Amino acid sequence: MKIRLDNIVKTFETFRAVRDVSLEIGSGELVALLGPSGSGKTTILRMVAGLEFPDSGDIFFGDENATEIPVRHRGVGFVFQHYALFPHMTVGENIAFGMKVSKTRRSPTDIAARVADLLRLVQLDGLRDRFPGQISGGQRQRVALARALAVDPKVLLLDEPFGALDANVRRDLRRWLRQIHAELGITTLFVTHDQEEALDLADRVVILDKGRIVQQGTSEEVCRQPENAFVMNFLGDTNRLSAVVKDERAEVLDAVYAAPGLPDGPADLMFRPADVAWSEQGPGLAANVVRVIDRPDSRRVLAVTANGQNIEFDASPEFPAAVGSRGFLEIRRPRLFSTTA
Amino acid sequence: MSTARHTKPPRVGDAPIFRRLLIAIVLILVVLVVVAPLAVIGVQAVSKGIGYFARTIAQPDTRHAILLTVATALIAVPINIAFGVAAAWAITKYDFRGRRLLLIVIEIPFSISPIVAGVCYLFVYGLQGLFGEMLQSADIKILFALPGIVLASMFVTAPFVARELIPLMQAQGRDLEEAATSLGASGWRTFFSVTLPNIKWALLYGVVLCNSRVMGEFGAVSVVSGNIRGQTNTLPLHIELLYHDYNAVGAFAAASILALLAVVTLIAKVALERRGAGRVSRPSLAAPQPALEKIP
Questions:
Q1: B64-110: per-residue pLDDT in tens?
Q2: N or C: which end of chain A has fewer CB within 10 A?
Q3: Are the CB atoms for A162 and A136 separated by under 8 Å?
Q4: pLDDT tens column, A166-186
Q5: How many CA atoms lie within 13 A of B172 on its CB side?
Q6: Chain A residues with CB-CB distance to B197 below 8 A
Q7: Cβ contacts of residue B295 below 8 Å, gap of 6+?
Q8: For chain B, how big is the Rg over CA atoms in Å?
Q9: Confidence band (pLDDT; 50, 70, 90) for B161?
Q10: Does A282 score more than 80 pLDDT?
Q11: Which residue of chain B has the CA closest to A159?
Q12: Among B residues 37-66, those touching chain A with beta carbons less than 8 Å apart
């Protein structure tokens, strides 16, 4: 089912949560809404679900305008951040709930068979008679997904699906969700504030800031071609140096970088910690090492430029760690963003 | 116990003297304040023999008072349950203007003396009151009759159920209801199969409190009922009447009945809890809500 959002606006009391968002999600696509808290991503998800209603704008499911359809009849599967499993029902009863309340009557044996199928799909056979309080967080998450899938939703919506789980479980569940999506081909929209999760899982990443879409595209597109400083910053560790642009050339201290298409004036030069090469004799930006942090697969070096700007970069574990030593930084893939308003 | 004391490091407040002192204080207070008076009621009630006790109870005025009290509870408690659940639901599941105000208004009966409530009803429904003439011309009797007694009791006990439910329902949030609705459940279905099972213990407790208070209410009822012996006297009023008649044994007998009604309520509550505890669903409800897993 294709979903289209047209100029959606939503304001809570005085807080403008969503400002004029338009978005298309193709049938069978797996899309991530990525943004910091307060960026409006959960509000958008809840509006697609019908748990909130936009102040203006329309939401289409296929060709049908679904804006005014209440959640009960909208045919979406919603997985809540904290699962919202019914604590007084067993895992099996939780999964069967949607089928039991549905208008299409199903016989108890049909329901039991479907519950068994879904339990197998989410790899929880044998936990049917447990209560939510008796299973782990990752298992609860999978029960919540099975419960949402039980009603054959047109669209699957997940609110921070792995936010409350620890790192290992999260990684496993991510791969597994990707697999389920491939198997069922159901249009899926999920919300996350974790860039790694979005990049890892989604066909397309929609990045939001302050209620607006700031960039959307595949993981590769948003990673390699961030359109502005916010996206660059939000997707990962970023170094920032102030630069001055003149005649499409950006000057940073004594180094000069090409700045095609940038207006004259102040700009930010941004780059990833991994995109730095260190040498004892130039060329590059002169800097002093202030601290070295060891990581399992690399060393993170903290350095200060001649005019006191901080830089972090990643070096191999063999990097000679001499605090105070002086060297030069060569920046690969620098990105320049104008800061003139 | 002595071995445990040697192997365990002492915790704060775990010194034997402190522990014994604390237990002793509690026990003495319970005996002095709760057990002794109750025992006295029981003993005094039958001090002139079981026969006399039975005759006192069988006296028409007393019997009428018992029936009136039970009838009042049977009307007022269900209405207050419905009101309390509706109010708690509205306050915790919806955002609307005046929510906080409603919360305060619901609590007013807690802070107002019941006798004030009674007098208020006099002003509203009394002959000289707001609706007095209207009611009289329509031949509806509210004061000095069952409706007045029920109204006054309901006023006094209005907060009991709501007050038990609101904190719990606030803590539970709206996720469960939203989940049920998103799965296609209607409002009623959501309430009965999702909300109610998760609030039933708090609800039960609220009902017990509400019931005890309705049966025992004195101040407000004494103003609106007019204290007509054999007609509008509830048990508490009747007990006072007997006592002022220097019929101490009669008063004690009636009081023992009132106490008995309270005990029956408590037994009913315990029995319901037991039945619930026997079911498999109990542990998951009693178990602490799973904490959020750590976010690294």
A1: 999 999 999 999 999 999 999 999 999 998 888 888 899 999 989 98
A2: C
A3: no
A4: 888 888 889 889 999 999 999
A5: 26
A6: 86, 88
A7: A163, A164, A166
A8: 24
A9: very high
A10: no
A11: B175
A12: none
Confidence of residue B182 (pLDDT cuts 50, 70, 90): very high
pLDDT at B226: 84
Report the alpha-carbon distance of residue A297 to residue A279 in Å, rounded.
20
Q: Which two tokens stand for residue B205?
A: 């407790």
CATH annotation of A238-338: 2.40.50.140
Copy the structure tokens of residue B21.
């002192």
Instruction: Provide the CATH number for the domain formed by A3-231 in this structure.
Output: 3.40.50.300
Residue whose C-alpha is closest to residue A231's, from A35, A19, A41, A33: A35
User: Which pTM does this prediction carry?
Assistant: 0.81
**For the range B254-258, what are the long-range contacts, defined as Cβ-Cβ under 8 Å and sequence gap of 24 or more?**
B254/B56, B254/B57, B254/B62, B254/B65, B255/B41, B255/B45, B256/B41, B256/B42, B256/B45, B257/B57, B257/B62, B257/B66, B258/B69, B258/B215, B258/B216
Which residues of chain A does B193 touch, with a Cβ-Cβ cutoff of 8 Å? 97, 101
Cα–Cα distance for residue pair A76/A51, rounded to 1 Å: 11
Q: Residue B287: what pLDDT? A: 41
Please say if the pLDDT value at position A53 is more than 50. yes
Tokens of B119: 């007098």
Partner B contacted by A72 (CB < 8 A): yes
- Domain regions of chain A by residue span: 3-231, 238-338
| A-B contacts (CB, under 8 Å) | 100
Which residues partner with A271 through β-bridges? A239
